[in-house]
Amino acid sequence: MRKFKLLFIYLCLNINIIFPNQDLTGIIRGQVLDSENQLPLVGANILINKSNLGTISNENGFFILEDISQGYYNISVSYIGYKLKIINDVWVRPRAHDFLSITLDPKVLKLESVSVEESYFSKSIVNEYQSISFNNDEIRRAPGAGQEISRILNSLPSVASVGENRQDMMVRGGGPTENGFIIDNIPIPSISHFNTSDGRSNGPIGIINTEMVNNLEFYANGFSSKFGNKLSSYGDIDYREGNNNSFEFNFGLGLGGLGSLVEGPLTNKISYIISYRKSYLNLISDLINAGGLPSYNDLQGKLTYKPNIYNTFTLLTVNGNSLYDRSVKEGISIGQGIHGKVKNNQNTIGLNHRHIWNKKTYSNTSFGFSLQNADTKLYDIVDGVGTDTLSFKNQNKIQTITFRNVNHQKISNSHNLEYGFESLKNYTDYNFIRGNDGEFDVNEKISVLNLASFLSLKSKILNQIILSSGIRFDFNDYEKSIFLSPRINIDYNIFDKTNLIYNIGNYYQNPPEIYLSVNENDLRSVHNIQQSLTLEHIFFKDTKFSFSIYKKDYSNAPILGPDSNYIDPTFLMDQLIMYDKIVSKGKANSKGLEILLQKKRVEKFYGLIGGTYFNSLFKDFDGNEWNRNYNYKYIFNMVGGYRPNDQWEISVRWSLFGGKPYTPIDENSSSNFGTQVLYLDDFNEAKTPEYHSLFIRYERRFNLKRSNLITYIELWNAYNRENIETVFWSEELNEIAEETYFDFIPVGGFELEF
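The structure assignment produced for this chain is given below.
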């Protein structure tokens, strides 16, 4: 297998030699809009920095710059009465281009004592909450990310991961089920291909094709009242529109497998973009320590119809299938006495309508439908032989219908309103068996209706403060209660380049439906009050520093009650385990501080350095305090890149986080009983060794006469550190065994545009 990977890298190196760069030109196309009403700005100035090249936008806000030499550029967009905006890393190449959708913020003149200096980090009354954004190029080139959204976000200090083997994210001490994602105003139930019944992912590949992503806004420091039913974070993903000017085809090969993308116009008012991917993870399953043969495929697309400047209709579809097949041999090799298959299907389709009502108001209204099917059947391995004795079965079908309306209204130059409502209806059919003696046998149908309305008033005060006062009302027909969630965010400009940001808010999340299927007692929505204080300073126009302290307090969390037949203190938002007699009596808290230094690429260098120290604990029913499952204590990431010209780039990432908590194993009792026995009095008190790993990426670009080629080589876990994910009792080996993360993996790939 290693020979196969090295051969592939050799081929990529030879591709770099075979195709010389051509002296060719390309174009820059886009549209300039008012951020507060989405109407086009006529006559906006678009200039390429450090050149005399420029143009102005036409009556519909569109612009085009032609005969631009291939390469990367920074462009400035300005308009009288609006803040200057700088767009960095605009890639110009022949026969292809990225359409730039640029929004400008209206400017209120500042007091004379306050100077104005533009930077690559903008603040807006429209997007008042602190967020980190990634554009398409930043996502593609991130080292060690494999163009996967979750691994890109894991470079942030607020986000913890479980390593390369899984897609899970834990934000500020939270669990993997506490994060939400939305694409083009349409909620997505999961961004992972390989999902398990306990709410976690079970594979390295996500369902989102990042070639489709125009921009990602990630909120971990609190989020607006327009987002709900999640406790820790939200990712707002904007899929790009298909090229409405010419046909383009893209073909690529990377860690996840083969992929292709097609885009172009159907008419002068309709464009499309479609992608398909298929995996070859089965070829590298040994290197990624998969413990089985994972495979997947996905199909996603977006159709955009613009009958006029006031209406935009988008049809979105995201579909994915995954299979995890574990043979008897593989079950024995990782010390787990089970074999079988885990299948997942996820399909989402949605329609969004953006309507501009007038110069002060626009709205986004969406309707979505998602279908998730899980089919897991695992069988016992006895004395090294696979049997047909069922150990675990999980056949779930979840249908979700969503309706969402978000309105933006400009009241004055200093005040904006954001308001709307949403509904979400879940129909879940659970068919669950655990234990060959039918220890747990559930066959239930559950339906839950969620309704919500929200309102945020966003104000500029004395030209130095951006204040957002929001409130959200949530209702679900399971509890038949209304939950009130006030949220406040204050951004105070202390000095010209220094801001102090404080936010506090209430957040609610439904109890997981899996618990509703087996618990007759009343479970309640989990409640979280979180607050944070952040100091931001812009050192240079391309460099920003921030320091944050935060606190999160949980209540009404699901835990085992005193009448349960099981003894397990697990915080049941960290891992969804099928138990009965669950009660909403759990409490938890997370406290921490974060440091982030971010540099945008203006010349040749870019980078990010981030670190956090935190403590995430919970209390069980008896009041005992324990570590949550992902209480790593500290996380540190360094990401940097060097691009001397438009032809090649090298980037690195080094990650470090503390050991993962686990419960010590009673070796003697486990050996005597032939199954894992834990020291529950020391629940989550042991720790795996700390994790650290180095990722290196080299990228080479070629602009050919009829196509554009990107080749890359990545070294994952470059110094081959053996990082331990967890320890467990191996019933087959009759000893304590370790589950590890990726070994050293050399990864090669390419992307070809026509």
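Interim note for the steering committee: The mean pLDDT is 84. The two ends are 31 Å apart (CA to CA).
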